[in-house]
Write a structure and sequence with these properties.
By secondary structure, this protein is α/β, with parallel strands linked by helices. Helix content is 25%, strand content 20%. It has one domain (10-261). The protein has helices spanning 10-13, 18-25, 33-37, 46-49, 65-73, 88-95, 114-117, 126-131, 173-184, 211-219, and strands at 54-58, 78-82, 104-111, 144-151, 163-169, 191-194, 225-228, 238-240, 247-249, 254-261. Strand 6 (191-194), helix 10 and strand 7 (225-228) form a beta-alpha-beta unit. Mean pLDDT is 87; it is low at 7-17 and 265-271.
């Protein structure tokens, strides 16, 4: 049975780690104004979605760990889940499952085009082109859509934010990070879930030594926080957050730990 996108009850959360959530509550973010004002049917420009803090999860599939931690701490209201193997029909069926996002209900959706996301187009990378074969995934039919969730009336602030927003992209997560954060907007995500998947269908690792690691080192577009997955080698320049126990999540219910960007001085280079 697939994992829920956002396992929701407070009782379930005790299987994870309250301390990671409690720590991130000290970075609590006000709900973005556009999200407060949102009404069903409104078009949300991608620039508005990206204006505040953003959580980014490359290779997310249906794993809701990043959303859960960010939402319950109310440190992030906007999330981008990227996976080039997540077919739209399957994702829609998953989102329609009872308790998929427990304690929340959808109040609207929106569609973006590639031009809405990257007005100047995808930034080419020879290294990605060499490593990722043209037939590795469906490049002809990507999707970019937004779902707005609102907390159920029988839940209170301890459950999570009143509203949060999730963008689902079916595209290459490494190339998207390079184009979106490094070149188009020059802004890093605030928090990122870093999880390698072994033989899970990725053409390159996300962790240390991979293309994404090199993109981040050269550009200095580094997330402030990383939730690090099991069997994934952490990027240089991060340190564990003392006193925060690990959380469990993902397809195999593995342990994840919280890491913060260490004070470093690094020259920003252009890719």
């Amino acid at each position: 049975m697939p994992k829920t996108l956002l396992p929701g009850s407070i009782e379930e959360t005790s299987l994870y780690s309250d301390t990671m959530i409690e720590y991130l509550k000290t970075y609590r973010e006000d709900m973005p104004q556009w999200l407060k004002d949102y009404k069903s049917g409104d078009f949300v420009p991608f620039t508005e979605f990206l204006a505040g803090r953003v959580g980014y999860y490359p290779g997310s599939y249906t794993d809701g760990t990043l959303i859960k931690v960010g939402n319950m701490s109310q440190s992030v209201h906007c999330f981008i889940q990227v996976d080039y193997w997540m077919e739209r029909d399957y994702l829609n069926r998953h989102l329609a499952m009872p308790r998929c996002v427990y304690g929340y209900h959808e109040i609207g959706r929106g569609e973006w085009t590639g031009e809405d996301i990257l007005p100047r187009g995808e930034y080419p990378s020879l290294e990605i082109a060499r490593r990722c074969p043209n037939d590795w995934y469906d490049r002809e039919n990507p999707y970019y859509f937004l779902v707005i969730f609102e907390r159920d009336k029988d839940r209170d602030d301890s459950w999570g934010a009143e509203r949060f927003a999730v963008a689902f992209f079916m595209t290459d997560a490494i190339a998207m990070y390079n184009s979106l954060f490094v070149h188009e907007y020059r802004k890093a995500p605030w928090i990122l879930l870093l999880q390698d998947h072994g033989l899970g269908g990725n053409y390159d690792r996300f962790g240390r030594g991979g293309i994404l690691d090199r993109i981040i080192r050269i550009s200095s577009m580094r997330p402030e926080f990383i939730i690090l997955g099991h069997s994934t080698v952490l990027w240089e320049g991060y340190e564990s957050v003392p006193g925060t126990r690990k959380v469990r999540g993902g397809m195999h219910d593995d342990w994840r730990s919280l890491h913060k960007l260490a004070p470093i001085s690094e020259k920003c280079l252009s890719l």
